[in-house]
Amino acid sequence: MRNELVSPFSAGRAEDKELLGGKGANLAEMTRLGLPVPSGFTITTVACKQYYQEGKQLWPELLQQMEQAIGELENRTGKKFGSTDNPLLVSVRSGAPVSMPGMMDTILNLGLNDTTVDALAKATANPRFALDCYRRFIQMFGGVVLGIPHHDFEAALSKLKDQAGVRLDTDLDEQHLATLVETYKDIVVKATRNPFPQQPVEQLKMAVKAVFDSWNNNRAVVYRRINKIPEHYGTAVNVQEMVFGNCGDDSATGVLFTRNPSTGENKLYGEFLVNAQGEDVVAGIRTPQPIARLEELMPASWEELNRICKQLEAHYKEMQDIEFTIEKGKLFILQTRTGKRTARAAVNIAVDMVAEGLIDKKEAVLRIDAGQLGGLLHRQVSPDAKLEVIATGLPASPGAGCGIIVFDSDEAEALGKEGKQVILLRPETTPDDIHGIVEAVGILTSRGGMTSHAAVVARGMGKPCVCGCEAIKIDLKAETAQVGNVVLKKGDVISIDGGSGRVILGQVPLVEPELSDEFNTILQWADEFRELGIRANADTPQDALRAREFGAEGIGLCRTEHMFMAADRLPIVQSMILAEDTEGREAALAQLLPIQQQDFYGIFKAMEGLPVTVRLLDPPLHEFLPSAEKLAVDVALLEAGIGDVSKLDATRALLRQVRNLQEANPMLGNRGCRLGLMYPEIYQMQVEAILNAAAQLLAEGIDVKAEIMIPLVSHVNELESMQELVASTRERVAAETGKNLDILIGTMIELPRACVTADEIAGHADFFSFGTNDLTQTAFGFSRDDAEGKFLPAYLAEKLLPDNPFAVLDRKGVGKLMEIAVGLGRGKNSKLKIGICGEHGGEPSSIAFCHSLKMNYVSCSPYRVPVARLAAAQAALQQKA
Amino acid sequence: MRNELVSPFSAGRAEDKELLGGKGANLAEMTRLGLPVPSGFTITTVACKQYYQEGKQLWPELLQQMEQAIGELENRTGKKFGSTDNPLLVSVRSGAPVSMPGMMDTILNLGLNDTTVDALAKATANPRFALDCYRRFIQMFGGVVLGIPHHDFEAALSKLKDQAGVRLDTDLDEQHLATLVETYKDIVVKATRNPFPQQPVEQLKMAVKAVFDSWNNNRAVVYRRINKIPEHYGTAVNVQEMVFGNCGDDSATGVLFTRNPSTGENKLYGEFLVNAQGEDVVAGIRTPQPIARLEELMPASWEELNRICKQLEAHYKEMQDIEFTIEKGKLFILQTRTGKRTARAAVNIAVDMVAEGLIDKKEAVLRIDAGQLGGLLHRQVSPDAKLEVIATGLPASPGAGCGIIVFDSDEAEALGKEGKQVILLRPETTPDDIHGIVEAVGILTSRGGMTSHAAVVARGMGKPCVCGCEAIKIDLKAETAQVGNVVLKKGDVISIDGGSGRVILGQVPLVEPELSDEFNTILQWADEFRELGIRANADTPQDALRAREFGAEGIGLCRTEHMFMAADRLPIVQSMILAEDTEGREAALAQLLPIQQQDFYGIFKAMEGLPVTVRLLDPPLHEFLPSAEKLAVDVALLEAGIGDVSKLDATRALLRQVRNLQEANPMLGNRGCRLGLMYPEIYQMQVEAILNAAAQLLAEGIDVKAEIMIPLVSHVNELESMQELVASTRERVAAETGKNLDILIGTMIELPRACVTADEIAGHADFFSFGTNDLTQTAFGFSRDDAEGKFLPAYLAEKLLPDNPFAVLDRKGVGKLMEIAVGLGRGKNSKLKIGICGEHGGEPSSIAFCHSLKMNYVSCSPYRVPVARLAAAQAALQQKA
């Protein structure tokens, strides 16, 4: 690395960030390109580090180099520090290698003093402006460098305005400001027992020291600790000639994007103010004009600006976000950086830039923020809408919805069928609410986490859902809900945004999802580069078809429990669960068999020719039953003679059964393959339904690639036993149908024990599918339902964890377990197919990790398939880079 | 390995088990020692394997070698197969390398036929006996070799007895038996269309084939599959000359132990019958005489028997279990093997044998079954008692207790204080039951697993407890309980055995625990050899003192939650939990501080000079509150106007708070260090109490080695944050007390993520303590509370798991995670102390595993400390061997 103490803008380049800081490197790069950047130099991070070694003193070598840099700057600008006719004024800005709030702010107009202020007045022909600059400079310098409380200056300003009888700063005239400058200087004398420094070089030294010191102020230290930014980086200081956009009608200042950041249209987009300073544009006192008006008002500058924008785009090969100032007809570029844009614009710009020959397809694919893409695939709250957000819950299922509040699922169903848009508002939902959820446009609950019933069902249906919104207090009897001071009644209109968790009062404008040609183009390019297969998690033929449209190459997770929860089946499922013996259970299962078979028939048909991985029943059985608490209340009331007393015995019996099935920690209870081992008849029915459906389709000439997946395996013996069950059922079906079906049998890898014994398990599996939801729960010991509502938000706020591990795969812990599993599994069985079907399968950084483990595929919700295609391509391209 | 097909007893030795099978090797060894063993030979496992390769045929080479062996046997015995004056009779027995039920039984008296039966009659001067032998031989051979149903012979026998008008087989006379032999031979002809084989060599070939075939019968195949015995082992066949103890009053047969198997006393212990066959001793028709009587009756044989017993003990260096027969004054040893004994006898014998110079101290230590020892440390049900076991639940806390049934904790407390022995019988217990548990002699619950409240509290108090005994249906209102047809009322006496889970009707005799001098001697020897430190899990000064008495070298786990649960503190704890804000919580904590300080003062004092590891609060807070279900019922009833309606608002408020704290999966919820992070004031209070107590004791001149342990760490950041909390509290206490205490800070390793990121964590920890209860739960995804009551019993019955992983550490899975953690942890921090404080810390095979990982210590319940000392020594000795 270079190790200069001071470096003129003309000597650096964009790559020198570590030495010059981000800001300094950027200014140097533009200077190097020959763009009209005000001259200046950077005091480097090397100087900062030595400053601390020198005991926080500016030492001779640095002072000598600064002096030389100032001399060169004076030569280049033809201005001079302290000159009474052409004074050099500079801005001083901190700039670390990584952007770091909490450090010293900008100081403008350094170099002003009691004499140069007159020179500035003359140069701008605006004495009021010069004085205003001077008093601002004293205030800024006094606060930041001399440590004088901001309030001292503000009090003096207020007092003066009172005396002058004016309301706004801008109403103060030249004379007032002259007085204020004197008052400010007195404040400085009082606070520091020294006059305000009049020597520009002295001012500069003090400012540089202040910037260096700010590297170790409290806010900066805390920020670095939390964000794990190394202490040793240090900060640079940028010293740059001031330019003024407020020197008259031939001056102006503005900001622009080189393309439309909202749509991507290839046309300058921005605004400017004539005869103004940069801060005026932001302050909003005057209304800026659209950038196109500049062509009319200052055609030469307009032309130059367009030329520079093209040059910067050609150089950076990216849409730029630019700040400029025109001083007396001369254009200066003060800053350029890559412009932020919407997902839609990002896609369009990338495709356009390929057409324009600026970038190639790889670069286009790499450039889209895959995470941002997801938003394009759901209906969204219009970004321009003014919203009255009354609460925020967990963003449980993306998309936005508006409707009238209903507190009861029967009513939701009735109104929904009438064509009304309803939002179902419940403390939480149970399988008894399914019919209401089906007809609602959105679900809002006050309890439950990202894997609560409402969340899981809503995501499965692609319906907006906000969960665990604990700020909402629901009174089901009164059919009202209270949020702070707002009382919501049945029939009131609200909107929910399942992507952000926001709950909004009233109707909000929504934006429809869009799958433009450009979007498809990017995804086709992505498919050329990616190595990971992309499958979808889908439980219905509709979802399967949607996934296929979005480019899924198979179903990686077909959950069978949602089929059990449908309203017409739940009574049969409940009678199966409550059966007193195997025979009773088998009778109920016989009723379910043809229904399940029809489910699989539809999904296999929709996915013709592509693999479909069916997971056998996973959740604990009591999820299909009413809650013990509700039943206990019913029993107590019936015992007290309240209600239909004839139901007492039946309710008691039901309570007893529910209690039998109740578990202390259902997540770790009798579920997954444990169900298949305790009640083999359930899994047998499911396997039979799968095989029958496949046989039926084969007979119709339709190709089926069914795969059976055993959930929650912790020990190889469980898988072996379930393999035997599948094999014997297959033999039976083969005998009945005459079709001996080829079928893969694999297992979820979702428990730590399965990971560390993956070699044993791989000896009995055709494929592994990582269930990273459960694996994250067991690796961390976090119940997702509880964590996301209770301690996880605090963990994230305190940066105890870098990310929510249920959203972004935890590579160090969960990822380590996966790495062990892949190594052991492939070591034993080189043909083992390995995928992931947890929610991480649709999250870009997690997909990159899966790529790095050389997994075969990721599987995610249909709506995330395009995201996954792109992320997989990016991972492949980045690994090669 | 040797590969003979046939081997005479004189050619083999004890080490040849794989070739000769266990029985054959044993007979060969005794022959080699020159003991009077009836002659014979073994057809080897090599022959068995080739038999299957030859298509289940005896091939010429084998037949030739068998013929030679028979010839040699005839020469040695002076008897001859088929001889009419001195016929050779043999027994034929299977004998695999590992003991394997399910294979062919013994065939006795092979060689008998229509002519040799007369010779036998002459030789024994007992024609009736000879005929009885012949008919038994036909029946045995017919069933086992010829596959004729047992029932066919039994029916003929019954019919004959009816015709003869007698009731017992022994009432049949010579003539009857002669008839029966003819009938049996007819049955054989009918079933096989062949006469009963008369040629002894033919009989032998058929018997050998039958033994080989039985290696692959269904029962044997299933047994091997379940017990993972390799198919390729094969079985051997032992052919041995018959001897008869029923040749007159100079003949006898008996069984004996070389020492007393119950007490260990060094004196022959056993019984014999004059003029009898071995099976008569077992059949119990005649009453055998104690072995000492032999001295009087047959002094020469008695002397020889004593000499042989000494020789066998000197040879095997083990107490032997011997079968012998005296034929016409000549003593034969038919079998010897290591004798089974009680734990008490084992200890005494080992110590005696060291004194006798038979074995050394190492051998003595290795010889005790550490698992069996635990039983000596609790009061037990007398092994001789006849019991009426009415149900079996989970063996939640060892020891036995008898008392009257009480259904209510208040009543249990009242009666207990009156000096009554009570068994508290509840569906499950909560913190509200503590006062009842304290006064009960045992706890029995119908719900809950090995980590349920009742189980944990009872184990902590060393009180017998049987949990989750679901067969018991409790009616709290009626104060009755039903088990099958038995109805238990309040006041009925029952007994429980917490070591086996048995529930027994009525009072049973109990045996007091015993810590004999011999026991202490063994443990002192163990201490010389072991490398692992032994600590105890103890929460009270009483437990700490007991642990110290038993030899604990420190406290490895002092749980603080039990202190919170004591009856006088629970209201304060509840007000702390229900506080609406930090201030309210701090006020309650201020009340708890002096109480906690007193707790720690007592424990530190009891453990003077030894380390005490205190774990900060671990369980979810709602464990300290009443259940939501109960409150919901209360609210519903109050709303209906039933009960003290003035309490409605308060009950509703309480329900709301309980609901706020309620969790879907409390095991994975807001507990452990998460509590410390969410409510730092709780942990601060605990740390302050620890430090204050230590300062107080130091001021009194008592040495304290306190260690603070942070539970449930999943990410290094959690530990770092808690370290800061401890450090700042320590500074505060140092300022207040003037004592700056040295204190170790470490963490439980009880989550898979902590294991795989142990390097990061070790950078911030002085010690690791594996919490293998929780680690087993999360690695397997098994909630112990649910698993042990629901699917785990079935898993163990079906051998899906070799052991209950909560009892015996699962080395392949959980152990692999521990191995990873130890490797990463020590790699980062070579000074890291590593221990275990889960219940596995007291289980011998788990202790051996901890030794193999080179951990520093194990910690277990006080009562298990002696077991752990011994097991640790055995692990060290075995590793060196």
List the helices and strands and how they pair.
Two copies of one chain form a homodimer.
Chain A: E1 6-8, H1 17-32, E2 40-43, H2 45-53, H3 60-77, E3 90-95, E4 107-110, H4 116-124, H5 127-144, H6 150-164, H7 174-192, H8 200-214, H9 218-227, E5 236-241, E6 252-257, E7 269-274, H10 278-283, E8 289-290, H11 294-297, H12 299-316, E9 320-327, E10 330-338, H13 343-355, H14 361-367, H15 370-373, E11 380-381, E12 389-392, E13 394-397, E14 400-406, H16 409-417, E15 422-426, H17 434-439, E16 442-445, H18 453-461, E17 465-467, E18 472-475, E19 480-483, E20 486-489, E21 493-497, E22 502-505, E23 510-511, H19 517-529, E24 533-537, H20 541-549, E25 555-559, H21 561-565, H22 570-578, H23 582-606, E26 611-615, H24 628-639, H25 648-661, H26 673-678, H27 680-699, E27 705-710, H28 716-737, E28 744-749, H29 752-756, H30 758-762, E29 767-770, H31 772-780, H32 784-787, H33 792-797, H34 811-828, E30 833-836, H35 844-852, E31 857-860, H36 865-880
Helix pairs in contact in A: 4-5, 5-7, 6-7, 13-14, 13-19, 14-19, 19-36, 20-23, 22-23, 23-27, 24-25, 27-28, 35-36
What does this structure look like?
The structure is a homodimer of 881-residue chains. The first copy, chain A, is of the alpha/beta class. Helix content of chain A is 47%, strand content 16%. Chain A contains 36 helices and 31 strands. In chain A, the strands form 6 sheets. An 8-stranded mixed β-sheet of chain A has the order 12-22-21-14-15-16-17-13. An 8-stranded parallel barrel of chain A has the order 24-25-26-27-28-29-30-31, surrounded by 6 helices. In chain A, α16 (409-417) links the parallel β14 and β15. The longest helix of chain A is centred in the last third of the chain and has 25 residues, at 582-606. The radius of gyration of chain A is 34 Å and the shape is elongated. The two termini of chain A are 23 Å apart. The model of chain A has no long low-confidence stretch (mean pLDDT 91). Chains A and B meet through α24, α26, α28, α29 and α31 of A and α24, α26, α28, α29 and α31 of B.
